[in-house]
Amino acid sequence: MPTLEIRALSAAYGPVRSLRGIDLDVPPGTITAVLGGNGAGKTTLLRAVSRTLGFHGGTATGTVRFDRLPLERLRPDRIVAAGIVQVPEGRQVFARMTVADNLRAGALGAPRGRRAAAQALGRVHELFPVLARRAHQSAGLLSGGEQQMLAMGRALMADPRLLLLDEPSLGLAPLMAQRIADTVREINASGTSVLLVEQNASIALRLAATAYVLEVGEVTLHGPADELAASDEVRRRYLGVVDEAAAADADRAADTPVRTLGRWSA
Ligand SMILES: Nc1ncnc2c1ncn2[C@@H]1O[C@H](COP(=O)(O)OP(=O)(O)OP(=O)(O)O)[C@@H](O)[C@H]1O
Ligand SMILES: [Mg+2]
Fold first, then answer.
1. Residue list, CB under 5 A from ion ligand 2
2. Residue 152 counted as domain residue
3. Is 236 inside a domain boundary?
4. Which long-range contacts does 173-179 make (Cβ < 8 Å, 24+ apart)?
5. Which of 67, 217, 251, 257 gives a 20 to 30 Å CA spacing to 13?
6. How many domains does the chain divide into?
7. 16 Cα nearest atom in ligand 1
8. Is residue 200 lining ligand 1, measured as CB closer than 6 Å?
9. E strand or H helix that includes residue 187
10. Does 47 contact ligand 1 (Cβ within 6 A)?
11. Domain residue limits at 143
12. Any idea where the ABC transporter domain is (predicted)?
């Protein structure tokens, strides 16, 4: 029985259809990745789970269950209380508020008393020591990577059982993206399931157990992440790997001067 079970999910913003017939599972305790380019529907998928689609003028049909609990009729605050928290695309930290107040805001969604909040804060500071050091600074002064840490820390303050991560590596230098990825692994190791959407397929496929490829609102491939990472389709389209044999075939098929030179030099 998966933690998150999505069936026949379709979504639209007015006349714009963004998702069509999505079936997707997040097995308990795992990291599940969704890969896809710009406009594929990744953010829409997460909004359909967190029930925030309406805030963006969207609607959804189909079923979404979390540990058997149907989510379709719940308000976004009930989703958080049920244990699902979304880290939005582009971090969206409260720039004028301090780092500490951003974290405090994260705990509001799931009020559980002071002791639990203090424990959650301790855990967030352990994962991201920089958030303790910069506690009294405005969040807007943090670097992009630090803001991503704050956005994730804020989500963790609600002690989620399922974390929805929207392109955490976006716009980060490779080293910072790797640090964020390491933290995602750590968060998962301590028992939180993760649904991760990413354009950075190499990071996502290394983290995830299972992955889905989303193209123009539809799932076109899914399976174990290592199998997807080995598939020609994914390597070519999402990992930027040039398939040597296919490239050579294309070279032979097209008789252009450049290709002739290539053959000559070989
Ligand atoms: N608020 C909105 N109103 C209207 N159309 C929208 C809205 N948000 C997204 N869309 C459209 O829905 C489709 C899917 O968008 P979505 O943001 O889910 O894609 P994405 O995979 O997250 O892309 P990106 O990688 O660029 O973030 C796109 O065609 C987009 O233009
Ligand atoms: Mg998006």
1. 42-43, 89
2. yes
3. no
4. 173/145, 176/144, 176/145, 176/148, 177/203, 178/203, 179/145
5. 67
6. 1
7. 5
8. no
9. helix 174-189
10. no
11. 93-158
12. 4-241
